Amino acid sequence: MLCPACRGGLSRTPRVAWPSPVPAGLVTPWVAESYEGAVRALVVGHKDRGQWGHRRVLGALLADAVRGAVSDLEPDVPLLLVPVPSRPGAGRRRGYEATAALVRTAARGLRRERSVVLAPILASRGAADQAGLDAGDRATNMAGSMHCPSAALARAGRRRRAAYVVVCDDVVTTGSTAREAQRALEAVGLPPVAIAAVAATRRRAGQGRGPRGDPTVGPGARRG
Q1: Residues ≥6 apart with Cβ < 8 Å to 93
Q2: Where is the region Disordered (predicted)?
């Protein structure tokens, strides 16, 4: 459980978090927090240590990021939330699909406000662990690593053409994972409108410049 002081320290304020450098063509990434302190402990505990109860807090933060991502879009259009897939075997080793669980929790909260569909339609072909890799190596590692394995799933997704597609993850670091998920969805005719994540690494959250050279948008700001 999260102590009251730690919970009170959460900003719960969605913000744009462009990585640096920005992967070419990346749609706008939104996050709720910086990846440090209590938030980092929650993410690591949930993903790697079987502390699955953290999904409630993390799912609420992810929902905040999704709200920021679609705040300027039509409220009556459904959302299609697509979790970034785990590497092959990772879910089996953990006994738990961590990112999908967060997206499921976020979707439950968002459904009180609008129509939301959870769409775990992506799969990973396999990529090396990203730990210790720089931005260039991460991009190379992730290139071509995701796909939609089922034509039926892709067709089901395309039937939601009127929906806003949002790629969902736990942490934005270099943006290479999000960009690969975006590419795989675009390949089956489901271009995302945004990326939403719980947190971004500190040197990227609320800092740097976007792909057009504009300053990164700060807390609570809208997409330009």
Answers
A1: none
A2: 201-224
